[in-house]
Backbone:
């Protein structure tokens, strides 16, 4: 194995990422509602020695609820069920800094992290939709900058809480009756603009110290936030050149926060349609495209672009869309979709087909070798540290990836054959987490 | 089996309810920190055909953190891990209405409820300590009445959200592309004093419709709240007469909310020390009493009574305590402890010994037959619909209950030999939940 190894995360969504997956004969749509389905996906990912599985999340029903399967499980609970059925695979849950309290959320993640023996990760999101805001007493989504402001303070509190218990705080000396060393259990005493939190957290540190921090915002504020905190970044990049530019940009920002390039893994998304021949893979993709419901897709697209397209003719180009400054939701996805439509002069129908697989993520149809080649190319040419694998249909699309693409990557020495650690932090090749108070003590002891 | 059957819930706490359990040789204190321990307890409870297992919770570390094992897992995640390893036993998690948002919490419970196929219950608490308040931006705990006011509105929102999806809303018709019937997915559109929540919830209804509601407040507001919402009530009652009075009081309030006596199960706590002879059981209890650390116990007692006892002499009676109106935390526990100390003229040392087993809950040392007799007596004499079984040490104290007391109750026809349903609602003998919109439709259809 080369010293730099690939990281693979399975992004699991219902019965697949393709928006029409649930209508395809390879899929049993009822499984989207069944926790056992997701537990099985966790087992498949672990069989493939993947770094982690990941669930996205939103705090409202999706648009046009009656036309597509909905995410029905809250990710932290669902991953806890997967934790109980697996031993190694990392478990990344999405949760919002805009509509949670840091004490409660830090605790839920710490609990998952201990239950899984150090496999938890948190995909930090700020929740960009009005529908979510309306479930939390607001008329519309708070401004982008305000959300990132709260997110930053939220992280500072969560990090302090996760450090409240030094790793060697617990003594459990039954004879003397001393459970913990009080000098190693710390309050947070955070007083800030959004939060006042005393601490300590009521969960001691997990085997990996604290959950791995993951992020997926690609706007300026998103990238700054990622450079400061994230240990893995999910991103939608359509071409190698764009991927390289994003990768260089993000890695270049790390030094500004005293971090090294290898402290953060960049994981672009890929939606792989895999078949024994290229033609078969393309035909498979086409089958899914043909099942798209235009009215559902238009609703999705309207949300991404901030303009009502539901009555727009399918065979016309996009109408004028608002300027990026008017977008308070997902700025980077807006930009990607707008650039795609304009750059390739697509009609709305064509655009919908291109977005159907992964809502803007790169779709790739090919043989197992072609998929492996593409992954290797991005990995070796400075566009990726690995991939966020987004199977278009599930479980089949994950199974075929694990059974046909992973062995090729293993044979090429790019990917592990066995886990060499047990925590997500170890899988990602990150440095061990060092508790802030242990550092202080070491410094005091040194002089 | 008689038509009225006993309900048994296992209240699981660390390595046991006795505050010195972790120091006793029957106990391995490290297990308190290990999720596998709790999963094993869930399996033992299921082997005993118990209705449910239950975790208490608080949103801060306990007082005197270094002198006792701490609860280290968040209950909803921990119960999800247990859900994955069991098939029937009910799963009751404590969560606070004071420091959560209804959308988020309703969703987490709905997720646990679906993952467990309809076994979730929620022990609704309002969080009575200053330590908790300080983790959520407050200087001290909000007033008792204000907490119950928020709790009431919280419940109204949660109940509306759990009804958002009618049970038959999901069609999943892949050929037409229709996932759900939009007429059967409802918004909540709640606008109240504490919350504005649009809905619908993004989790469809579980097999039991919604989680079972459990409550454990015994003050006037607590009992009114329980009478309105709760389907099971945990309570600390020290004598049969007190138990009968509480039982009659609570059941008598139900009609005021249009409910029947059997819509709510009253479950007093019992901390059983079980051994082959009465003398051995008493000796076992004494072993635990002898391991109490007075300084830890005084800290606990100070919290319950709202007065600093940490320097008070152990062999003196209690000093004067504040009047009940000054207690903003747990009023009913305050009253129980004060009445116990005054009624029996106990010294502080004696009081601590009496409280060590279950913090005020009834402790009972006896043979399996004596424990079964006591349970039957309360059950048949109008003091209980079952018990909240609080093993003084774990797992041993639960094992001996399941292996020696449960068979006696089964032989007497008081307790199930096999589960006859799969949901917690069924175990508790509650009526099926009827979705509010289904009622409306039925009424419209009827004319
Ligand atoms: C792979 C991927 C997964 C994402 N998952 C979620 C999610 O689960 N929930 C969410 O609210 N946003 C999610 N996002 C959106 C981002 O977190 C972020 O909010 C979005 O990119 C807007 O941020 P920006 O304005 O900084 O671009 C995801 C983005 C990517 C690329
Ligand atoms: C068996 C039992 C378990 C309880 N569990 C919790 C708990 O986990 N968390 C909590 O904050 N309060 C808990 N309580 C306290 C009650 O929920 C309630 O807050 C307390 O009795 C004060 O309410 P009151 O003022 O109405 O008496 C418990 C009480 C009992 C009897």
Residues:
């Amino acid at each position: 194995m080369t010293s730099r190894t690939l990281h693979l995360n399975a992004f699991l969504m219902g019965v697949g990422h393709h928006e029409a997956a649930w209508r395809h004969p390879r899929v049993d749509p009822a499984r989207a509602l069944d926790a056992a389905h997701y537990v099985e996906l966790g087992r498949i990912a672990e069989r493939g020695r993947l770094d982690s599985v990941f669930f996205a999340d939103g705090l409202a029903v999706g648009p046009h609820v009656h036309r597509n399967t909905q995410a029905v499980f809250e990710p932290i609970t669902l991953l806890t069920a997967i934790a109980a059925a697996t031993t190694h695979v990392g478990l990344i849950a999405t949760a919002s800094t805009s509509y949670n309290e840091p004490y409660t959320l830090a605790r839920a993640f710490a609990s998952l992290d201990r239950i899984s023996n150090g496999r938890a990760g948190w995909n930090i999101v700020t929740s960009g939709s009005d529908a979510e805001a309306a479930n939390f007493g607001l008329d519309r989504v708070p401004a982008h900058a305000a959300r990132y402001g709260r997110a930053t303070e939220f992280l500072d509190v969560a990090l302090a809480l996760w450090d409240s218990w030094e790793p060697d705080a617990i003594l459990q000396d039954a004879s003397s009756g001393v459970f913990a060393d009080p000098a190693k259990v710390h309050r947070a005493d955070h007083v800030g603009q959004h939060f006042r939190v005393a601490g300590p957290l009521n969960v001691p540190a997990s085997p990996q110290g604290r959950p791995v921090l993951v992020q997926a915002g690609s706007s300026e504020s998103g990238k700054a936030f990622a450079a400061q905190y994230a240990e893995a970044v999910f991103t939608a990049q359509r071409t190698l050149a764009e991927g390289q530019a994003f990768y260089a940009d993000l890695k270049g920002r790390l030094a500004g926060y005293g971090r090294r390039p290898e402290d953060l893994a960049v994981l672009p998304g890929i939606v792989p349609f895999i078949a024994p021949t290229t033609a078969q893979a393309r035909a498979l993709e086409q089958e899914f495209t043909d099942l798209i419901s235009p009215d559902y897709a238009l609703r999705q697209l309207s949300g991404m672009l901030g303009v009502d397209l539901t009555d727009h003719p399918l065979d016309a180009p996009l109408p004028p869309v608002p300027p990026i400054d008017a977008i308070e939701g997902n700025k980077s996805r807006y930009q990607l979709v707008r650039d795609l439509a304009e750059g390739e002069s697509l009609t709305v129908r064509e655009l919908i087909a291109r977005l159907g697989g992964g809502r803007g993520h790169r779709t790739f149809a090919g043989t197992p070798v072609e998929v492996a080649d593409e992954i290797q190319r991005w990995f070796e040419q400075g566009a990726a540290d690995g991939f966020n694998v987004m199977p278009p249909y599930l479980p089949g699309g994950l199974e075929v990836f694990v059974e046909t693409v992973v062995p090729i990557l293993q044979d090429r020495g790019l990917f592990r054959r066995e886990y060499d650690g047990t925590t997500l932090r170890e899988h990602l090749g990150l440095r061990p987490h060092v508790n802030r108070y242990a550092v202080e003590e070491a410094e005091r002891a040194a002089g």
Observations:
- The pocket of flavin mononucleotide (ligand 1) is lined by residues A 56-58, 94, 125-128, 144, 216-219, 221-222, 234-236, 269, 330-333, 388 (CB under 6 Å).
- The mean pLDDT of chain B is 93.
